[in-house]
Design brief:
By secondary structure, this protein is of the alpha/beta class. It is about 30% helix and about 25% strand.
Length: about 270
């Protein structure tokens, strides 16, 4: 497994995907962030996130998101009172758009195009709060390396909040129609090798296209929790939800039965 090659492929695939996302949004983010009240935390699943953010208190804090995609969530987080924010992402196209949105919003946010694992000592003990959103962790083959960076960047007493798709949800490769599931070809919950595909990543507009190859990794819930502990991050809260985050069509019968997302809050002691 050549990590540098995988990283290069993923960067190219996300640059390509951002073009489709931007077409689907039709400058709605640019228009939105021109208002001081605008936030992208407007989905049903975001209600629990908003309540948790209120209880954490980001007033006058320095925050980060890694990876940050096009910065829309990090800028929305600043609406909770943070005074400075830094976003990190591997995609050139994502960071370009993030910088544009930051300028429009007039918020004190900066963005850097970088592999998370390559973030330098400049940001050691720098952040009060780090946010990790859905669809982030599966792009990193070694979570210990990833969370070691998170630990290094947090100030003493700083918090990390993970609001992610539950690993269970990745099994359902044909949405939530169990009659269409191909269990013989389904990705194993215990798979360690990268899962490679050439399927379009346009989860905004729903457009299917022949995409550049990219790779992601399955991480068990126990792996995520164990790695956090081993990196020195104290787990303060953990909750699983039946809230769907991946834009799939989910019936009430299914959301009543399966974990589809989770929230974890950790602290650097």
């Amino acid at each position: 497994m050549n990590i540098k090659n995988i990283t290069k492929k993923n960067r190219e695939a996300w640059n390509e995907a951002l073009e489709y996302h931007q077409k689907a949004r039709k400058n709605s983010l640019q228009k939105g962030f021109s208002s001081s009240e605008f936030s992208t935390f407007d989905r049903d699943c975001d209600k629990v996130l908003i309540e948790k953010l209120k209880s954490i208190n980001l007033q006058d804090k320095t925050i980060a998101q890694m990876p940050c995609n096009n910065g829309r969530e990090l800028l929305s987080l600043m609406r909770f009172g943070a005074t400075k924010a830094v976003g990190f992402d591997i995609s050139d196209a994502a960071i370009k758009e993030a910088k544009e949105l930051a300028k429009i919003s007039k918020l004190n946010a900066t963005f850097e195009r970088i592999n998370i694992l390559d973030i330098g000592d400049k940001y050691n003990n720098f952040f009060d709060f780090i946010y990790i959103s859905e669809g982030s962790l599966q792009w990193f083959p070694n979570l210990f390396e990833y969370f070691s960076v998170v630990f290094r960047l947090l100030k003493k007493g700083g918090k990390v909040l993970i609001f992610e798709i539950h690993p269970f949800a990745y099994f359902l490769e044909n949405g939530f129609d169990f009659k269409k599931q191909n269990f013989d070809q389904m990705t194993s919950y215990f798979e360690k090798e990268p899962y490679s595909y050439k399927k379009g990543l346009d989860y905004i507009g729903g457009v299917e296209y022949e995409a550049k190859e990219c790779c992601w990794f399955m991480h068990k819930m126990s792996d995520i929790i164990s790695v956090l502990i081993n990196c020195g991050i104290e787990i303060k809260e953990f909750e699983e939800y039946n809230l769907e985050m991946a834009n799939n069509q989910v019936t009430k019968k299914l959301t009543d039965k399966f974990p589809l997302s989770y929230m974890l809050i950790g602290r650097k002691g």
